[in-house]
Amino acid sequence: MGRYVKLVRRGRPDFVEVKGVTYCGDSKASPLTIKHCPFHHEVRAYCQAMAASLAAEGYELASEHAHSNIVLLAHKDFKRDGRWHTWIDYDAFTRLYAQYVAEGTPFSSRDYCAPTPPWAEWNEAAQDGGFDPAEDRRGKKVVTNGC
Question: What are the tens digits of pLDDT across the range 66-121?
Fold first, then answer.
């Protein structure tokens, strides 16, 4: 983790998205197996340690999505009035880009960020892992010898 923390300190990105590899089966192109894939709780723990190491630089845990095995760290500049703004307002981005092309007016991600839905914000105690409550979640049925 130390080298990633050094990279973040050096680059000072707005966001750091950490994704655990998702196993998609054997491949001749890669020696990776299911043993190389972290569980979401391991990605969360890794990111908690990263956030603790980067707290002085203004980074905090902002969002997660367990289904994608992703946790997002964001600079605290994207937390306004106690809410994270880590989503993209595509209409604002399109307008700002057109203005940049026409007039050369610079803009940054702070100018087109949108509020993160509450269900996607980081919550240490959350059991849902950042799933949209409006979506249906279906699990596999476990069949054991026809019983």
Answer: 888 899 999 999 999 999 999 999 999 999 999 999 999 999 999 999 999 998 99
Q: Provide the residue ranges of all domains of the chain, joining segments of one domain with +.
A: 2-120
Output the pTM of the full model.
0.82
Task: Please tell me the chain's helix, strand, coil percentages from 3-state DSSP, rounded to the nearest 5.
Answer: 40, 20, 40
Query: Measured between alpha carbons, how far is 1 from 49 in angstroms, rounded to an integer?
Result: 8
State the DSSP H helix or E strand holding residue 32, giving kind and residue range, or none if neither.
none
The length of the chain is: 147
Nearest one of 66, 60, 107, 68 to 86, comparing CA atoms: 60
Report how far Cα 49 is from the mean position of its chain's Cα atoms.
15
Query: Taking the CB of residue 15, how many other CB atoms lie within 10 A of it?
Result: 15
